[in-house]
Amino acid sequence: MARRIIAYILLGVGVLILMFFRDYKGTMISFPFIYSLCGLLLCVLGCVLLYLGKKRKALHVHNQYKETIEDIMQHGQKVKVDLNQCEIRENNYSEERERYAADGLFATLGVAQDIQALNLLTNATRNVENVQVNQSVIIFHYDYGGRLERFVSPVLPFDRTTLLLKLGREKETTLYIDHNNTRRYYFDLEFLFES
Questions:
Q1: Distance of CA 31 to the CA centre of its chain
Q2: How far is the C-alpha of 122 from the C-alpha of 139, rounded, in Å?
Q3: What are the b/e assignments for 103-114, b being 16+ CB within 10 Å?
Q4: Are 172 and 80 a contacting pair, CB within 8 Å?
Q5: What is the pLDDT of residue 57?
Q6: Residue 21, number of CB atoms within 10 A of its CB
Q7: How many beta carbons lie within 10 A of that of residue 170, not counting itself?
Q8: Phi/psi at 161 (nearest 5 deg)?
């Protein structure tokens, strides 16, 4: 949180310096160009701090997710899943997406929004493309402790036919279930993303 506050302060001070020295015509401060350059550097430094903070947070969430999966795999119950006995549900649709998505450092700087606005003014369809989105899930029913439990895989970026072909090669996989909480489980489907 402190890093984010410092980043915003640096951005604010940098913008104020740039605005002050943009039209400065006085003689009291010699070399106003150097001060403008310092303001620009403060802005860049603030943007870099924001970007690194966002990246650090995403990395932390990813590491937590991996630790949870490793814990479930080590201490949970292993269940062999016959993939031919699973139900597959799909949800395919098409959507309009921005061609120049605001990702990375450009999103922090606001340059991406300027590009999108300019594209929208010149040609409304230039920044948009139709994309087919394929999504499927694998549903497995299992008698766990006398109760029929339903385990659903994460959303997979495949249509039903492609998923059936990939599952046909492997035939079975492992489902890891936490002993204390059946809502905490992990489908081992890494083979789907191998070439």
A1: 44
A2: 47
A3: eebbbbbeebee
A4: yes
A5: 86
A6: 19
A7: 13
A8: -65, -50
CA distance 118 to 110: 13
What is the pLDDT confidence band of residue 141, given thresholds at 50, 70 and 90? very high
Q: CA torsion 107→94→131→126, rounded to 10°?
A: -70
Chain mean pLDDT for the chain: 83
CA distance 112 to 49: 18
Helix axes 2-22, 32-75, angle to 10 degrees: 160
Sign of CA dihedral 23, 29, 31, 33: negative
What is the spatial distance between Cα 55 and Cα 193, in angstroms, rounded to a whole number? 24
- Res. 70: pLDDT tops 60: yes
C-alpha 195/C-alpha 193 separation (Å) is 6
Predicted pLDDT at 36: 86
Q: What is the mean pLDDT of residues 61-88?
A: 90
d(CA 21, CA 31): 10
Token pair, residue 49, equals 């701090």
Which tokens belong to 146?
Answer: 């006398």
Task: Let me know the angle formed at the C-alpha of 16 by 11 and 4, rounded to the nearest 5 degrees.
Answer: 20
pTM over 0.70? The answer is no
Give me the pLDDT at residue 92, please.
87
Q: What is the pLDDT of residue 30?
A: 78
Residue 126 token pair:
């230039």
pLDDT of residue 101: 57
